[in-house]
Each structure stands twice: as C-alpha cells, then as structure tokens.
C-alpha cells in the first residue's frame, strides 16, 4: 500500500514564470533551483509546501512527454500525483498483481530514488507516480 | 501566504467505485464516509493519506459544477488543490490585492470552515481552493 504524498506534479510552459508565483504564495525560501532531467525530457523545480511539495515541470527537448499535456492545457495544470513506497520492486509487483498497468521499468526520478508511473486509466484518471522513499527518511 | 496542502480534489463519476480503489491503496480505515454538500452540488468522500487527504468528488444534481469536468474527463481526474490559511478574509484580500480572481464570497466548505476558490487562470491552470484551518488545529 501507498505512503505519503511526496509531491503534486504541475506542468507549466515556463518554470521561471511559475516560480515567481510560488515565491509569492509560499515564500522565497520555499522555491528550489530548477534542474534538467534529460532522460525524462523535463526540467523540474520543487516548491516546499509545509507538508508536501509541488513539482513544477517544463518540457525539455522536442520529444518531451509534457508537450501533449500543454497542447491541451496551454496555461499548465495538475499533471500527476506522486506517492512514496518503501520498496519500488515490491510496489511494481503489487500493482501488476491487481491488473494495474505499470508504465515501463523503475528508473531514477527527480529525487534520486527509483520511480515508475501507473496508467491513469487504472487510477481513476489520475496519472500516478510511485517513488521509493529516500533512504534514512520516514 | 499559504499553509499546508489540506487536500487534493479528485473528481470521479462514482465515489463508490473510487472508494474501492482507495481502500486497496491506503487501507480500509483511510476511506471515510461519503456525504452530500447540496449547496455546492457535490457529494464528497475524504481519504486519509499519511500527510494530507484526497477528496473524492462526485456530481450531485443536474447543476453540479463537476458535470463539465467529467464531460471532458469521463474517467475522472485531478480537479483542484486546497491549501490552508489562518484567516479566510485576510487571504481573500491578499489574493485580490495581487490581481488574482477570487470566485465568490467565502462559504462553508466540506471541512466546516470557510473556503473560496481562486481562478485557475491566475494560478497556472490549477483550480485552487483556499480553506481556513479548523480551529484548534495546526
């Protein structure tokens, strides 16, 4: 079963512009440095909310999986929810045993631990990221 | 400025069906009883995630504001994010002073404290609920 909500993924056409809004909403110190994740075709920036994080996601490169989302939602919007689990491989087996489609093999995510996505059609329309909790936390 | 993420609002055509999935994901005890909010045209059900909640929202009545969302997203999906503030009227003035559109007057929300929504066009495409923290909490 799932643990805490690690973050809410929010797609944006411009992290620079969105970061300005989130600095206003949560304070300057809450907004981290943006960085590229070339393997996933995204640039990301984490915002600390008191009990979770918002992950701002901007397309990186022509093949970014975010282009399709922004074509439908030009201003950006809620893209995915990410929950933590203690063991990514056990979690993959758990979803698959219940007929829920895991999209690809576990790979290293934005927080440096393994992640996978579950198909939104098996999660009530919610694209869901499953992330192994960082070691030594929780 | 904003406080903790009180909940993620997830629209669904059927709370009964979604609740079944969330019991599997977070355990039977995590899923509360569903109840109607006729003034807002929705039926809701809260799911306890370790550090926040998911609010399942089903349309209630022919004029429910959720019908439009479900017409675009028949399987359901992420509908809004709700952040807490200590004082709802101070929060309304704060958003308005920055040119962000508050939708209507504060009214009592699903947790029994005053809430309002901020226009998604002023929040990077994210429909945002602002909720006064329950007294005696936080």
Automatic annotation (TrEMBL), chains A, B:
Enzyme kind, highest EC tier: isomerase
One GO MF term attached to the UniProt entry: methylmalonyl-CoA epimerase activity
Keywords: Isomerase, Metal-binding
SUPFAM superfamilies: Glyoxalase/Bleomycin resistance protein/Dihydroxybiphenyl dioxygenase
Pfam families xref list: Glyoxalase_4
InterPro entries the record matches: Glyas_Bleomycin-R_OHBP_Dase (IPR029068), MeMalonyl-CoA_epimerase (IPR017515), MMCE/EMCE_epimerase (IPR051785), VOC_core (IPR037523)
Lineage: Bacteria, Pseudomonadati, Pseudomonadota, Alphaproteobacteria, Sphingomonadales
Protein name, UniProt field: Methylmalonyl-CoA epimerase
């Amino acid at each position: 079963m799932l643990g805490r909500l690690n973050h809410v993924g929010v797609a944006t056409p411009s992290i620079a512009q969105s970061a300005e809004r989130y600095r206003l909403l949560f304070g300057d110190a809450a907004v981290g440095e943006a960085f590229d994740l070339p393997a996933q075709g995204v640039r990301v920036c984490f915002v600390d909310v008191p009990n979770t994080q918002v992950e701002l996601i901007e397309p990186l490169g022509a093949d970014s999986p975010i282009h399709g989302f922004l074509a439908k939602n030009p201003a950006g919007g809620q893209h995915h929810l990410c929950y933590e689990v203690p063991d990514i491989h056990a979690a993959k087996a758990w979803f698959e045993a219940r007929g829920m489609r895991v999209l690809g093999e576990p790979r290293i995510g934005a927080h440096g631990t393994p992640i996978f996505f579950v198909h939104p059609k098996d999660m009530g329309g919610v694209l869901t990221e499953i992330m192994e909790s960082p070691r030594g936390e929780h």
